[in-house]
Amino acid sequence: MIDSILETRGLTKRFGGLVASKAISLDLRQGEIHALIGPNGAGKSTLIKQIAGGLQPDEGSVHFDGKDVSKLSTAARARLGMGRTFQISSLAMEYTVLQNVVLGALGHRGNVFWFFNNVMKDAELLETADAALTKVGLEDFRNFRASDLSHGQRRQLEVAVALTLDPKAFLMDEPMAGLGAEGSQQLIGFLDTLRHQAPILLIEHDMDAVFSLADRVSVLVYGEIIATGTVDDIRTNSDVRNAYLGEEGAA
Ligand SMILES: Nc1ncnc2c1ncn2[C@@H]1O[C@H](COP(=O)(O)OP(=O)(O)OP(=O)(O)O)[C@@H](O)[C@H]1O
């Protein structure tokens, strides 16, 4: 039996007459990066919102770690281990790297009535935060302000914040966006190792990143998955090339 941490079954979402998700069934398996690609407006964000809990499907269900989570809130899904990253605005830019992670860990405890100064003396919280920073390779930057980090390092910091929730899987929405060539290469290397900590469902337009990272790729076109397979399967699939990749994927 295939060991899937996340599974969608027949997810369908309509906006008036537009069917943004058409009976989408996909899964995320332990240890893998499963990339979701498709042209603008194909329905990638709509799908990830339904998985994360921000949008209710009209039909279908979402299963996570063996449970039907379809009716749970975003916060409840996060507590079960669904780690969503790269909402960059969630970082407090004027705070240090360490403070950002402590705030994330505090959210995990569900206690929002702490005074910040006290929090920064809490040994258990600091230990959790330091462990997360070490895992993402930012331990030497703990006293830097978030605003002083490069774009790529901010993404690593987002992952560190997510790690304080002990995620069993990551949902990532365009992590490469806005990174230069060097930043992209660094983040590719980072995600490559992160998959062993928790598998990643990756929405990404950067085909170099997708083709170098993904164990499997699903292609979404007009709300429908037209193919799922390995990078080689997808590159050579004539339907995919006609609908999306064109000559770009043939390189
Ligand atoms: N709240 C909404 N109300 C009405 N239509 C919507 C809503 N959200 C998305 N859509 C429509 O659903 C379709 C899918 O949009 P979605 O943002 O999921 O695509 P996407 O693949 O993420 O696109 P992009 O790559 O540009 O981010 C689009 O036609 C979009 O206009």
TrEMBL record:
Question: Do you know which Gene3D superfamilies this protein is assigned to?
Answer: P-loop containing nucleotide triphosphate hydrolases
Q: Name one GO molecular function term.
A: ATP hydrolysis activity
The record's GO CC annotations read: plasma membrane
Q: Does the keyword Membrane apply?
A: no
**Where in the numbering of this chain does the ABC transporter domain appear?**
6-247
Question: Which Pfam families does the UniProt entry name for this protein?
Answer: ABC_tran, BCA_ABC_TP_C
Query: What PROSITE patterns does the record tag this protein with?
Result: ABC_TRANSPORTER_2
On whether NAD is a keyword of this UniProt record, the answer is no
Q: Which UniProt keywords apply?
A: ATP-binding, Nucleotide-binding, Transport
The identity of this protein, by name, is Amino acid/amide ABC transporter ATP-binding protein 1, HAAT family (TC 3.A.1.4.-)
Whose protein is this, by species? Answer: Shimia haliotis
